[in-house]
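**User:** My hope is that you can spare some time for a protein that puzzles me. I have put the entry right below:
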Amino acid sequence: MPVSAEDLLSVVQRYWRSDHAFDDNLETSPETERFHDAWEQALKKIDQWRELMRELRAELPHFNIGHATATCDASFKCMVYTNREPVPSDRQEDDPRSRRWAVVGCLSILAPVYTVYGVQYDYYKGREEIAARIFLEPLLPEMQAPAEVVARKIEAMYGAEALPRDIAEFRIPLIVERKEPPETSLFHALFTSEPENLPL
């Protein structure tokens, strides 16, 4: 059954607040309690997610496969990523010296939906700075084949539905971690508020 932005908004409103009423309060909000309960139930199925990652390693042997799940987010996450590779440049100071990319598969614990996105990281010589670019749709050409494998595995194992980009980008009046309106979207509430933050 196709999902709608309105239906998903009614789901995520149970887990995220629209105000800071509980920020300086020792009491936990009802939304946070429900979020913790959702994770408690989801973690009972962590072995199934590990099996998915084993299958990815078998099907994508030339890539690194990593576990990127964090319980501050609302999803199980896996990543298919490359090693750093030198970037050809004309020696301009602002050119990155090396680059890597990752394809990330996210299965929401709040609704039967998933997404696959890409991140490209540029590393600069002599600086701590790393520049990250997020790709939803379309992905870079080199990301597309592994992204299709991740999507196929999630669908086969969980029966989840891919969240269309227009619905993922639907703005919501909720606070998700450090994201606040008007920046907050269904993507943040269902998957992660920091898609570039990966344990690479």
The chain has six helices and seven strands. The mean pLDDT is 94. The longest strand covers residues 98-108.
